[in-house]
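Feature request, filed as a ticket because there's no other form

It would be nice if the structure record came with a short human-readable summary line next to the tokens. Right now we just get the raw output. Example of a typical job, pasted below so the devs can see what we mean:
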Amino acid sequence: MTNIFAPLKRYFLSLFFTLVISLIPYIIVNDVLAVVLSAVSIIFSIVQIHAIYCMREACERIRKSFNFFILSLVGMIITLITAILGLYSENVGLALISIFIMIVFACFSIAANFQFIWGLDELVIKNGYNYPQGKIKWMFWLTIINGLITGSLANAGATVQALIIGTVCSVCSLWLLYEYLQAVNEKENKQI
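Raw output as currently delivered:
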């Protein structure tokens, strides 16, 4: 059995801080701050990828998720660069390219999350965690629900409602991962 508690805890903490950072633009509206927060989000994505790299031997799905996470990180960096260039040059074409790139690499991010979360679910039985099998998969479904509902609400101009629903979905996902993390910690401490 591969011990995953330490890297999974780093992954959890980076998700938590990413959620906190994502709420700042709703409090302070500033284009430069938005770019800085995007850069900080990339740093937390690197922490997540490193955590997954450390867990990659736990199962094949987590190993596959690592490759998809690398592709999504490259997409985030490219999107950030095109967004910065579009912001300073006020080029509409560049902004459209940025949106297209963001959509393409969002698909890689979805695939990465799917592989990772399904990998965590496989480890419930494989490693004997005291956690209901299938429960962690709700993290993935909450992410999809969050994206669809908040995207629709934001396009309809209901920014506050999108923020509330997005935050609730993210907090629920974090809670599921926290419970899973406690089960992993309990099992790995019994081994020692």
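Something like this underneath would help us a lot:
The chain is about 85% helix and 0% strand.
The two ends are 12 Å apart (CA to CA).
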